[in-house]
Amino acid sequence: MANALEREARSLLTAKAVRARAGQMLEIGLAGGLSHFTIDLDRMDGVAEAVLAVTRKAYPTLDIPFHARWRHFVLGGVDRWARLADAGIWPDRAARARAEFDLAIVSVLLDAGAGAAWRYRDGATGADIGRSEGLAIASLDMFASGLFSDDARAPFRTDADALAQLPLAALTSAFQVSETNPLLGLEGRTDLLRRLGKLVAERADVFGQRDTPRPGGLFDHIATQASDGAIPAPAILSAVLNQLGPIWPSRLELGGVPLGDCWRHPAIKADDATAGLVPLHKLSQWLSYSLIEPLQRAGFVVTDIDGLTGLAEYRNGGLFVDHDVLRLREAADAGRAHAVDSLLVVEWRALTVALLDRLAERIRVKLGRTPDTLPLASILEGGTWAAGRAIAFSRRPDGSPPLKVISDGTVF
Question: Which end of the chain has less Cβ packing within 10 Å, N or C?
Answer without folding.
Answer: N
